[in-house]
Amino acid sequence: MDVTNTAAGRMVDDAQNSEFLTFTLGSEEYAIDILKVQEIRGYETPTLIANAPPFIKGVINLRGIIVPIVDLRIRFGLALVEYTPFTVVVILNVATRVVGIVVDSVSDVIILPRSQIHAAPEFSATFDTRHIEGLATVDGRMLIVIDIEQLMVSNDMALLDQPDA
User: Fold this and answer.
1) Structural contact between residues 112 and 67, judged by C-beta atoms closer than 8 angstroms
2) Where are the extended beta strands (E) located within the chain?
3) Model confidence over 155-164: pLDDT tens digits?
4) Spatial separation of the C-alpha atoms in residues 151 and 131, rounded to whole Å
5) Please, what are the domains in the chain?
6) Could you tell me whether strands 37-42 and 56-62 are parallel, antiparallel, or unpaired per DSSP bridges?
7) What average pLDDT does the structure give for the chain?
8) Which run of H or of E encompasses 149?
9) Residue 145 and residue 153: Cα distance in Å, rounded?
């Protein structure tokens, strides 16, 4: 078994394949671990929450569960795009929370060997790459592999209570 360190310091089995959901935001294609995905829904306008950060569009009631909806285009600082019939909400199970993310469209579910995910390049401290697991090329397309759980539980998302230090 080949085991290597990734940029984030995690141990990864090179022979391991993982499934990823791929989606688009603007002109870029992203991938997240399929095991974090609960369901994919068409976009519906959420109920606004006063004083929420701009990237939190509001909440929806999903079969009795109140689900915050995060627009990743706003969170990542991308140009705002109109909500179209292709705009979807990916419902995630992260940590102890159900969260929805708005994406332009869902592309595919792919199987990707972990060895094909390369560390993201280092940037200055002004450019945050903590949530980028790596980059992968599939059929000539560059995928940005996001550690969606780490992104959703980060302090700047304000979606989960942080334990006292």
Assistant:
1) no
2) 3-5, 11-13, 17-25, 28-33, 37-42, 56-62, 65-71, 88-94, 97-103, 105-113, 132-138, 141-146
3) 777 665 554 4
4) 5
5) 3-156 (2.40.50.180)
6) unpaired
7) 83
8) helix 148-152
9) 17
Q: Residue 106 phi/psi, 5° resolution? A: -95, 135
Look up tokens 């102890």; give the residue: 96
Residue 125 pLDDT level (bands cut at 50, 70, 90): low
User: So what's the pLDDT on residue 38?
Assistant: 96
Read off the amino acid at residue 59. Answer: V
| Token pair belonging to 55 | 């990237």
pLDDT in tens, 54-107: 899 999 999 999 999 999 998 888 877 788 888 999 999 998 889 999 999 999
Rounded to whole angstroms, the Cα distance separating 156 from 71 reads 14
Residue 59 CA to residue 78 CA, distance in Å, equals: 21
pLDDT in tens, 1-20: 344 444 444 444 445 889 99
Are the C-beta atoms of residues 6 and 89 closer than 8 Å to each other? no
Which H or E run includes 74? helix 72-75
Residue type, 24: T
